[in-house]
Amino acid sequence: VTRRLKSIKNIQKITKSMKMVSAAKYARAERELKPARVYGTGALALYEKAEIKAPEDKKKHLLIGVSSDRGLCGAIHTSIAKTLKNEITNLSNAGKEVMVVGVGDKIRGLLQRTHGNYFLLTFKEVGRRPPSFGDASVIASELLNSGYEFDEGSVIYNRFRSVISYKTDEKPIFSLETVAGS
What we know:
Elements: H1 2-33, H2 37-50, E1 60-66, H3 74-93, E2 97-103, H4 105-115, E3 119-123, H5 133-145, E4 152-162, E5 165-174, H6 176-181
Parallel strand pairs: 1-2, 1-4, 2-3
Antiparallel strand pairs: 4-5
């Protein structure tokens, strides 16, 4: 019995130290993410103020799925993949041409077998460091240099709610011609 109690106390000590390490990692990630959030709110404010709307008769749609290169939490990556699959099906049934850009290796792995023919570009190694404007500009320039002329699209990603909860969210993107015409 004494040995069992000692074993339980050791497990409690290990669990406590793991919680402390996890809290430190979370605080660092939150601190590194804070400067990047400005870019997202700025772009969203532009879209809302300019009242940009894509014409209904446009046929080419671009979906950008943002995931990560690694991680053990399958639900985070699966929810984005599920949303992308639904969007691809809905848009294809509506007669639209759909292409997908995958940011993160997990999203490519989940969709490659069933929806591999929809991939235009994939990006790896983007989320290893804190998000920056440089990462976003590399993705944007590769997309512009790909030669694919899309009419409208959306970025599908997970929005942070709490340490244990994410919400899959979608933000619109528009072609340069649509933005210039508004």
